[in-house]
Amino acid sequence: METIAIERWKRTFKYMRLFLWFALVSSLLGTITIAGLIIFAKWKGPPPLAVPQSTIFYAEDGTKIGENHYGGKRYWVKLSDMSEHAIHATIAVEDRKFFDHYGFDLKRIAGAIVADIKAMKKVQGASTITQQYARNLFLSYEKTWWRKIQEALYTIRLEANYDKHDILEGYLNTIYYGHGVYGIEAAANFYFGKSARELTVAEAAMLAGIPKGPSYYSPLVDLERAKKRQRIVLHSMVEAKFLSKEEAKQAANEPLYFSNGQQMKTKTIAPYFQDAVKHMLKTVLGLDEETIEMGGLRVYTTLDVNMQAIAEEKIKETIHSQSNIQVALVAMEPKTGEVKALVGGRDYEKSPFNRAIQAERQPGSTFKPFLYYGGLQHGFTPSTQLRSEPTTFTLEDGSTYTPRNFNNYYANDTITLAQAIALSDNVYAVKTHLLLGQDKLVAIAKQLGITSKLKQVPSLALGTSPVKVIDMARAYSIIANGGKKVEPVFIKKVTNYEGKVLYEQRSSDEQILDPALAFVTTHLMTGMFDPTLNDYASVTGQSITSRMTRPYAGKSGTTKTDSWMIGFTPQLVTAVWTGYDRDETIDRTDEKQYAKHIWVSFMEDSLRGRKVATFEPPEGVIGVYVDPHSGKLATAACPTTRLTYYVVGTEPTDYCKDHPAEKKKNKKKKEKDSWFKRLFDWF
Predict the structure, then answer these.
(1) What is the pLDDT of residue 674?
(2) Which of 286, 374, 480, 515 has the highest CB neighbour number within 10 Å of its CB?
(3) Residues 548 and 598 placed together within one structural domain of the fold
């Protein structure tokens, strides 16, 4: 018996030793595995937490003007910007021990296995918030062992490299809530028309119940089923000690008001402007298409929604509904280059081609201010006289060129530069162009930011080389601001989904024009609205001067296929083009006036309520009263006078002698004679 007992003891000891050895090896292997996984997780580094997010575009006042989402609304907000009720509800129903485990809840996994075995089917999930987040971020939803292994590895990487609060924030920003909505901020907007920060207990519990089955538990699909799920969430919050039973009961009985997604149905504002913004994101910031469309960017633009609405309204009011003519408008602040309104066509849905940015059209006489700035550089003054008469120019190569004035009207006499720009005299312009040298106008236009190819020909003075509307608006802005370089600015700032600034606009003070000459050019451009410069024809802005309530400078331009009006105050530059896409000629009288009428209506309404700003001469400029026809210093005998500005030292010194006092007396006497006496004298 004693021998048998000893044998049994030996066998028992052998088994115990074998068990201890196995336990030791298993423990060692487990330790090595865990250490290996941790080392692997650290070696691989932190996986990126970013997922495709909606890029949102804002106007200068913070108004949302559009967004890219491509089938899914996704916004990223910080954990601190979420209602604590939403956080508590999610933790309570999805992963109550989230802050206690390291990515896997072993007790919950074991319980789920037992429940599944008892039911002989999958009835209970055991995924933690970290596991779900790993699945949302990196994995497909195929049910394979390889996917499970990948999910586990991503879970370990997340837990090893990120704080729990980072994981929770990421999870709440990526989880699917149905109806194409991802993340708690988008869900709060979609279901309740508010931000995640504003969610009540009842609303948070309703949302927290949806991810288990978004198409099943959505209150917009089945409210009764969603309410039952809400009560389960509230009960979980009580068990997790986030709520008292009384608070849970009160939340369960609270009436909920759903927005049915109306808050997220953002009307697209200024689609042509937004296309220009996206182009700038590519060319200026160097962002790729995917980042622009789904990078969760917040793009803060320069758009003034009020001005944009005015621009669209005035275009619609002015152009007859039966007309097929097209339009482009760009409004910019001359000092900053910020684009405040942009229209690239009459209907974006029918034609997204952006005529303000992409099209090149003949600018006509709107090119003349560049020419006359060059003239001022080379000795011209507002009083410089040249003859306006039919003229054929013989060029260096032996060819000839004959410019014509509008309707073949000519002064057949000398006119001043001030009159030439106000009346838009083509003969004067071509003479100036050829006197300066044809390369001068090209150089000045390029200096002012004209990017199109310009032909060095006599007709360039009359705007025969096509240019872009946006370039013309920039060039006029440089003249308007006293000669400082500006670029068209569409974007003030860009941030990523975390709020990190990726780009911020910085202004430049580079002086590229002589400020005195820029001002004199500006004052020359006020002439198109001043009837004292009328001569053989009326000033070109006469048809709209009655609608103007403040000083403007500008220039109109007309070709057979294009009609332009560009003008400004010190606060705003606006360029308007009208014409047909396929070079159809503008023959109707009303269509020839569209650009001017759109321009003046837009400027007046956009500036209404703002202080009337005048053009203030800089140092080195002097203003004197001259006779507008002779360009000489005015005398008391001159019937009309005009305050005209010159660079100091170039102002006229001779007095006008065209209106002797006796002629003035005789004129007055004749005016006093009766109509019968005047008629008798005529016979």
Answers:
(1) 46
(2) 480
(3) yes
